[in-house]
Write a structure and sequence with these properties.
Elements (H helix, E strand, L loop, with lengths): L4 H9 L1 H64 L6 E5 L2 H4 L10 E5 L9 E6 L7 E8 H5 L8 E7 L4 E6 L4 E8 L3 E7 L6 H72 L5 E4 L5 E4 L1 H4 L13 H8 L16 E8 L5 E9 L5 H24 L2 H17 L5 H13 L3 H21 L6
Antiparallel strand pairs: 1-4, 2-3, 3-4, 5-6, 5-8, 7-8, 9-10, 9-12, 11-12
Helix pairs in contact: 2-5, 8-9, 9-10, 10-11
Length: 448
């Protein structure tokens, strides 16, 4: 995923990126140590192989050199030539190299080579006096080559005490070991090539770097996703804040409108010529004028008084006098005036004789017959809130007038409307319809 340079730089300065770089550094250092250790081990193995080759060749040549030296000493003691051994002065170029060498020491010198004869060495004892005759033996180099047996990927060299190469076999390597066959006379040099580093040693750091790079790439992608989510969240929060501002403005406007409507309703009720009260869409008392207040006991008059309790209190005069009940001809006759917002006005027309609660029951019946179609219409329209409000009002009426079978059905309708479950509301309404006709009969009418 392409990232701008500044964003990439910030991501590299993040603590997780620093930890990643520390891991990479640690891996590189560990890989370097591993490779160095492996290289050192391979060189040590090659050195061991070269040393073993040199030691094997030195042991093989040591016996041959001892036999040659013994023959030369015999010839020197007897003072006469023996088979293959001659007494002869050494050439000046050889004598010039023997300064400081103890007389009687065995030395080797390569003889000039020509095309007709094989390569030879001159084995001699250092003379007592410079230029004096000394026993010398011509030794074919091929005889010494037979004693050298280098292993594969190794090489052996025979070097004189003066550093002159006498014989060489095998392929020279980068690791060398040297042993004297005869101190100052003959030295064996062995060399070996270290084995190649295992491919796995190189693959381990490469695999580690690849794995860390993959993890870091996934980390950057996850950081990008988090940044995108944060950006989306900030945008969503900004939209919600704007919506909240709009809702707050609407609430202020609604509150202002509600206050204006309440003041208008209060003015209308106060100016009403007869006793009147205002009930909201749920059938609860919200406002009244002084004429209506005179119809109810003072302690019973309150806001949110349900319609059922209101009609009961209308049948009560003043507690403590005439058993607290209105007599015949003293009960008010009420008229319900529906308003556009679902609320209604209850106007007291005049007192009418009523020996019992028939007027209250008729008023309850009228209210139920008014609200039942609204409840059905709310269900058909899918307006759960309207269904809940009408069901709640009807349930209050049913509870106040002892309609015990209807109240549970309306409670089920109210619960399903509150849960906004359309199928449950339909089923609960069927239960309401089954009990509604019986409730009307209990109130004194069989009309649904």
């Amino acid at each position: 995923m392409a990232r701008p340079g500044r964003a990439l730089f910030r991501s590299l300065l993040h603590r997780s990126s620093i930890a990643f770089m520390l891991l990479v550094t640690t891996l590189l250092v560990a890989s370097w140590v591993l490779i160095q250790d492996g290289t050192h081990g391979l060189r040590q193995a090659a050195l061991t192989t070269a040393t073993q080759n040199a030691a094997r060749a030195a042991l093989a040549l040591k016996d041959e050199m001892q036999a040659i030296e013994a023959r030369l000493w015999v010839a020197q003691r007897e003072g006469r030539p023996l088979a293959g051994i001659a007494f002869t002065p050494l050439p000046p170029e050889i004598t010039a190299t023997l300064g400081g060498v103890e007389p009687g020491q065995l030395r080797l010198w390569p003889l000039p080579r020509n095309a007709q004869s094989p390569r030879e060495l001159l084995a001699f004892l250092v003379p007592m006096q410079p230029g004096a005759a000394t026993p010398a033996l011509r030794l074919p180099v091929a005889a010494l080559d037979l004693l050298l047996a280098p292993q594969p990927d190794t090489a052996l060299r025979l070097v004189s005490g003066l550093g002159t190469e006498l014989a060489a076999l095998g392929t020279a390597g980068s690791v060398q070991a040297s042993l004297w066959v005869r101190e100052g006379a003959l030295r064996v040099e062995a060399s070996a090539t270290p084995a190649a580093m295992s491919l796995a040693v190189w693959l381990i750091p490469l695999f580690g770097l690849g794995t860390l790079g993959f993890i870091f790439r996934k980390h950057l992608e996850r950081s990008d996703r988090v940044d995108l989510k944060l950006t989306a969240l900030r945008g969503s929060l900004a939209r919600h804040a704007a919506q909240l501002s709009v809702n707050e403005a609407r609430m202020r406007l609604s509150q202002s409108e509600r206050i204006t409507a309440e003041r208008r309703e209060a003015a209308m009720i106060e100016a009403w010529p007869r006793p009147v009260a205002l009930l909201d869409a749920e059938g609860k008392l919200t406002a009244w004028n002084q004429g209506f207040a005179a119809l109810l006991p003072a302690e019973a008059l309150r806001r949110d008084l349900p319609l059922g309790m209101l009609t009961r209190h209308l049948d009560i005069r003043v507690p403590g006098k005439d058993n607290g009940r209105r007599g015949p001809g003293q009960r008010p006759r009420m008229r319900s005036i529906p308003l556009a917002d679902g609320s209604r006005l209850f106007e007291a027309l005049a007192d009418a004789p009523s020996p019992d609660l028939s007027e209250a029951r008729n008023l309850c019946r009228t209210e139920m017959l008014t609200r039942a179609p609204l409840l059905r219409e709310g269900l058909r329209a899918g307006d759960a809130e309207a269904v809940r409000l009408h069901a709640h009002a009807l349930r209050g009426l049913a509870a106040n007038f002892g309609l015990t079978a209807l109240a549970p059905a309306l409670e089920a309708v109210e619960r399903s409307a509150q849960a906004r479950d359309q199928s449950a509301m339909t089923a609960a309404l069927e239960g309401f319809e089954a009990e509604f006709g019986l409730a009307l009969q209990q109130l004194g009418s069989a009309t649904a």
